[in-house]
Write a sequence for this structure.
């Protein structure tokens, strides 16, 4: 089954990560200072399940029930293969599905009259209106929050944060040019269903590696700050004095 194959892939990825002591990656520093910092990364004072919001959605992302998680990932993979590899179109599949539903209801209504004196009621497919309302509210809330964040960065006057956000958006634009929107969604969906469970299983190793990267990034940023950002700030201050 596809879900069993995907489950085996996730487990193989998890087992392929070498298990080592988290403090060993900080041999140059003080081992006693590693544990407190590890607990602060990604809100690690809370469990991964709690950080993901808890509930059934977190259970699916953390593979608490392998059959459900594997089925969800297999369904997403099937959809991506249909549209990306086999070049099916959404409208084509939609109309074919509607035709099959109508054909099933037609056969049901006709067959019920032959096998019973009283025709049974044909089941009807009806989606709850609250579902669309909730989806619209969630999407609207997230879009407004993202727009608010970008506008706050743009109007805050903080050049450092502004350049970081602009560079991130530019990198996202370059990545988006390599593949279409559906592939980006699928890659993000697969990452959501693999990275949390791997992080939960090997959180100490991931935290240690992340702190090494953060340390290197901090050093490079300090050099950039001393070489460029401070000169820009000084030039701006001098121009104000001359005015």
């Amino acid at each position: 089954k596809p879900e069993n194959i995907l489950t085996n892939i996730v487990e193989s990825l998890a087992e392929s990560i070498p298990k080592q002591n988290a403090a060993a990656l900080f041999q140059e520093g003080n081992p006693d200072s590693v544990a407190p910092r590890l607990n602060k990364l990604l809100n690690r004072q809370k469990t991964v399940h709690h950080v993901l919001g808890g509930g059934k959605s977190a259970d699916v992302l953390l593979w608490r029930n392998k059959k459900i998680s594997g089925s969800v990932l297999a369904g997403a993979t099937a959809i991506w293969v249909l549209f990306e590899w086999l070049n099916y179109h959404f409208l084509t599949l939609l109309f074919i599905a509607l035709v099959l539903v109508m054909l099933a209801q037609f056969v049901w209504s006709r067959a019920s009259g032959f096998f019973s004196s009283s025709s049974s009621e044909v089941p009807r497919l009806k989606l709850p209106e609250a579902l669309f309302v909730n989806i619209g509210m969630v999407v609207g809330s997230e879009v407004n929050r993202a727009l608010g964040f970008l506008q706050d960065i743009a109007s805050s006057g903080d050049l450092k944060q502004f350049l970081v956000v602009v560079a991130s958006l530019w990198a996202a634009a370059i990545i988006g040019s390599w593949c279409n929107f559906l592939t980006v969604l699928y890659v993000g969906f697969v990452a959501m269903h693999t990275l949390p469970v791997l992080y939960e299983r090997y959180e100490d190793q991931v935290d240690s590696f992340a702190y090494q990267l953060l340390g290197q990034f901090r050093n490079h940023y300090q050099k950039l700050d001393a070489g460029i950002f401070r000169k820009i700030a000084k030039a701006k201050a001098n121009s104000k004095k001359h005015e």
Observations:
- Residues 17-40 have pLDDT under 50 and may be disordered.
- The CA atoms of residues 112 and 119 lie 5 Å apart.
